Amino acid sequence: MKRRITAVMLVAVSALQVSALQVTAEITYEATFESLDRHQTPEWFKDAKFGIYTHWTPTTVGNEIAGVGWYPFYMYADVTINRHPPMMGHPSETNEGPHWAYTEHVKRFGEPKDFGWKDLLKTFQPKSFDAAEWADLFQEAGARFAGPVAIHHDGYAMWDSEVTRWNAKTQAGFDPSKDLEREIRKRGMKFIASFHHSHTWRYFVPSYRHDGTDPAYVDLYNEPHSYGDPLSPRFKKWWRGLLDEYIEKYDPDMIWMDMGTRDIPNDLMYPFLSDYYNHGEKSGKEVATTVKSYSPYLPGAIVDYEKGRVKDLEPKPWLTDDTVAPGWFHSSRPGVKTANDVIDILADIVSKNGCLLLNVGPTSDGVIPESEKKILRTVGAWLKVNGEAIYNTRPWHTAGEGPTVIEQSGGFLKKLHYTAEDVRYTCSKDGKIVYAIVLDRPDRQLLLKSVSLEDSISTVSLLGSSENIEWEQTAKGLRIEVPQSLHEAHAYVFELKQ
């Protein structure tokens, strides 16, 4: 039963003081698992299918130096350290002895006890950032939702914050979140923001051998502690205050959560979820949150598979976050994905009731590399022709067929190479149109084995072509004569009307 109460949302206004923002709302979610898990995936998310976000913070500077996305962590690795202690089963990503990021840091700046993260982040002074240009590119790519990494593990807020002095406005004189929120919404896309600061409690532990114990910088490095120590009251206030402030300022449609949520206790996480879900109810908008597949489940959240996917069709919508670059932040190393890879991955994801959130990595100066622009534009050109097989679709009774399959649902999958025998299916919301997405150039004759006589197909056409298609339904499947003048595409979509 709904009831009217007054909720007090504490929003930190400086490192030393907080003020109370009184919000009267019709509460529909309580801070319990059962209540929160009633939260439904937004219809806009089910329809959107494809989004873009950007790993772009001062960490980009370090990644350009050493090619290490966790530079603020590894720059302090003067001895061998494990990236994820005490989490078992995750690769260390270190060699014996000092990490190369530490070595490179010493070469350029000296010992981190003298020039630490508090100093390096101040070198992040972008001059070429253009939010309108970014939003134009995201729109051209065919994204239906987009936004920034609002704060990474590095503790630097990419907005004008009063909760922390370590923010883009104070340190670099601009507010990228404000600019992107305006430009992204102007183009009809949903605005999202990703939050990685749940992991910051662990992230700066190596700094305590260097400059991290200086009490003047406790608001960046946190109180000195060891892995596994409980969160401090100061950290809890900081964690929640940043989220509250961002929602108040920019009202994102989705709060995307990184892996660090495993460290946030339910008595801290559940009140946030209830307040955010209730915020959506009050404002009349559908909001969403996410949780990594390898972290404890968050009630009402969308499960996200980092650089991975599910094996089979899932009844509930889900998400993949992946990147076109070799890492999450920009580096000089070449990318590992092509536009064809992205299109194949997108088709596979959508056929199984998922959505793709694709990362791009701008330079520290705020420029999206031409190689990544080309990939996004190619994906967008494909979607202009074939988008009706992606947007606003729902899963068919069969996700796909062919030899290339995912052996097990999960993250961090190896690259798969799809063939013309690999087909992924989607269907229109009303169930009257089936789309067969062939993931490579088919031969003269194509047999869709999953399309049976009972599916009662009435017409067959090829998206992007006006040529008449010859076809026949047989006991073995739908046989299609592929046009001789088949246009060049990364994947070919046959529209099957029932």
UniProtKB/TrEMBL annotation:
<comment type="function">
    <text>Alpha-L-fucosidase is responsible for hydrolyzing the alpha-1,6-linked fucose joined to the reducing-end N-acetylglucosamine of the carbohydrate moieties of glycoproteins.</text>
</comment>
<dbReference type="Pfam" id="PF01120">
    <property type="entry name" value="Alpha_L_fucos"/>
</dbReference>
<keyword id="KW-0378">Hydrolase</keyword>
<feature type="domain" description="Alpha-L-fucosidase C-terminal">
    <location>
        <begin position="420"/>
        <end position="496"/>
    </location>
</feature>
<dbReference type="InterPro" id="IPR000933">
    <property type="entry name" value="Glyco_hydro_29"/>
</dbReference>
<feature type="domain" description="Glycoside hydrolase family 29 N-terminal">
    <location>
        <begin position="22"/>
        <end position="388"/>
    </location>
</feature>
<dbReference type="InterPro" id="IPR016286">
    <property type="entry name" value="FUC_metazoa-typ"/>
</dbReference>
<protein>
    <recommendedName>
        <fullName>alpha-L-fucosidase</fullName>
        <ecNumber>3.2.1.51</ecNumber>
    </recommendedName>
</protein>
<keyword id="KW-0732">Signal</keyword>
<dbReference type="InterPro" id="IPR013780">
    <property type="entry name" value="Glyco_hydro_b"/>
</dbReference>
<dbReference type="InterPro" id="IPR057739">
    <property type="entry name" value="Glyco_hydro_29_N"/>
</dbReference>
<feature type="signal peptide">
    <location>
        <begin position="1"/>
        <end position="25"/>
    </location>
</feature>
<dbReference type="Pfam" id="PF16757">
    <property type="entry name" value="Fucosidase_C"/>
</dbReference>
<keyword id="KW-0326">Glycosidase</keyword>
<dbReference type="InterPro" id="IPR031919">
    <property type="entry name" value="Fucosidase_C"/>
</dbReference>
<dbReference type="InterPro" id="IPR017853">
    <property type="entry name" value="GH"/>
</dbReference>
<comment type="similarity">
    <text>Belongs to the glycosyl hydrolase 29 family.</text>
</comment>
